[in-house]
Amino acid sequence: MLVPRPLINRQLIRCYSSPGISDPIKQPFKQPFILSSKDAFKDSTKDIGIYQYLNQLIKEQRIQFVQDPIKVGKKVVLPHDYDTYLTSPETLPLTISLKSQEDVSKVPGWRRLPTLGYRIGKKLLTMYRESIQTTWRVWRQCEKLDTKEVLRELEFGNLENKFPDISRKKFVQDVIRVSEVKKLPIFILCLFVFEELTFLLMYLRPQLGLYRCLGNGAFNKISKKYLRNQELFKSLLQEKPQNPHELYKTVYALPTKTKVDLLQTLFINKQPRWKLKLWQWFNQDARLSDEVNKVLQYLIIDDWLILKRVIEHTMTKTTPMIIPYNELVNCILERQLYQAGEDLNVMVNDPIDRKVLIQRLLCYWSFKFNGINIEDGSINFTNKWGVNNIMLFNYTGTVNNKFDIFPWLITKDHLDYF
Amino acid sequence: MGKIPFKTLFPSKKLLNRVLFHMDSDLPSRKLLPLFERLYDHNALTAKDTAYADIPNVIFLMNRVLVELKHRTKQQPIPLHKMELYLLKKAAKLGNNDAIALLCYQILGSSQPTTQPQEDIVQSQQLLKQLVKQNHPLSFKVLADLNCHMGQFDEGKRWYKQYLKAIGPITIKNPDIKFWGSQQKGEVLEKLGEIEFREGGDENIIACEKRFLESIRITPLKNSVKSYFYLAMLYIKYDPSKAKVLLEQCCTQGFKEAFNELGYLEMNYFQNSRKAREWFKLGMEVMELQSFFGYFECCVTLKDWSKTHKCLKSINKMLSNESISEANKQSIIKFLQYHEANIKLIQSKLEPALKSDVKEKTSDTVITETASKWGF
Predict the structure, then answer these.
(1) In this complex, how many residue pairs, one in chain A and one in chain B, have their CB atoms less than 8 Å apart?
(2) What is the pTM of this model?
(3) What are A222-234's pLDDT values in tens digits?
């Protein structure tokens, strides 16, 4: 006799407000890591399998972060064979300035400055040309991917059957990088008019330039703009719940203006500001909600694909996994795992600060994916967090105190914990 | 009491024409209506009356027309029901395989098998065996339905798959499978999908989604409400907006489980308590217990204390009702325990109003009952 299967989906929608009706799904994996002391941190991470595993990989240097590759003309400067499934450094900005790469010590003092300017200008123009070509190629080769569908297939463990060519690199390019093509006409025009001085123009207005072409200063400006806005989440937490990390909020709980504000602080959102304002004026609430959900789903899929690849690679191969610095910086920027006043490019090139960034990312992933079978999705992500739970934007995976509502990021002071 | 005239009993010619057009019938209503009338008057159709009486396909068509009219008008007078049975038996006698298969199902799948003569049961089994040997699609479906009826779902699944293999794809180029075929196929896809959905597992879920989508494609909404509902359940986690549209479609057909689901989706995900309250209201009209709970929660969110109080009164009334099942009783108790604080709040809010009500009632000599059946 076939026993009717309980509709877990039905419970999923209900359990957040009506535990009296249906027993809520047990969620034992939602406690963030506590940074108040070394013992507290050790205690909170000791049973977290995924954190222990990833931390071990970093310690054993089976995941290595290396200087991002620089390609100048036909000469490709690749320090290592970085993972091509995972990374696409050719679409990301450089973490070191071109100036620091030039060695003009042998040039006589009186012509050092013009030589330096000439060499940097030449490299810049080559980089701009190549970025234009890459952007065009990404746009031409892109396929339209629906994040909802990809997430669903990931959870069913059916991703490879449904999308045979998919990789993390392709996913990122098809969903996010493809929108860079819109910047091309103005960027090319600027390049014709100002040539090397486009660099200056991009420093003044970073939104004008292609993402790859951003200099360190312009990138720093961008990172300041997309800082985590905790005021948004403060308004959502009027009543203090017993465990704040078990909270579930849908995007529909936010007022229209807050949705616009939230979207403007998310780097992945590619809708221009004027469009968001227009939707706000005409009360197009559903469109705004869709955009927020899209960003949320993109982040979940991106995290999932990275972790899946890391686990697959380290389980099957003995060679270390190579990830460039700019990929690390981009991950931190997209997930808003930084504070005001931090320059990510400087941090990633400093060995101690790099450790901080890596640990932030590890804690973020471990908190989010703890208890989930990443390989085939047999324990569901949506069951753990709820359908499109926007509170995920607020969590970094670490708090200062057990009962803290707002996240607390790892700093240099915490480095002896790991 | 005289017999009711045929014209008042039988649905309008306009509806008949629409049904015949939909069924892609070769015969027009002006030929079929006299046949129905003659059958109604004489309780039989003989070769003397009409040349069509011996053509099995026409007789079976008339039977299908009556079934379709029953579905469209959502009712069937007893004389028309008798006519339907007569036509089915006659078509089976004349050798229409579909009619034979359906008649076999009626006999073998009867809810009271002991009332059926033993001879009929044996003969039906033999006929069904012969049809299966001939690779007749409907006989596969009948076998599958019978198996599911007895709780043998694996066997049922096998026969449903056999049916799908035998019937092939539904296309315009395939003239044999018209309305009747697509309707059956839609039904089979829906049942197969339902079995797979309940079995669970990722592979089954992926397979059943395809079946529900195909069922929706080839059958009208009223025949594939369950497919819409199950699809909504599949999409609710990843695309709640799509699930909402599908559930709304189910609600237009009065599918009662959909009211609860849609209400909770609106309340908890879309955060629209007003809309959710309307769906729960409809759910309460068909006595869905979960709708009462949902309505209560919506009213609490909207701070509509008088309606909350009335809803609570109805829930308490249900609890004291002896005919209520044990499971429902337990969920009501659990619900009341969970909302204890809210109930106290309602009482404190409504206490002055209730007291003044009692005073008014005691002072009046005649007490009028204004509340409706559900206490509203």
Answers:
(1) 90
(2) 0.84
(3) 999 999 887 777 7
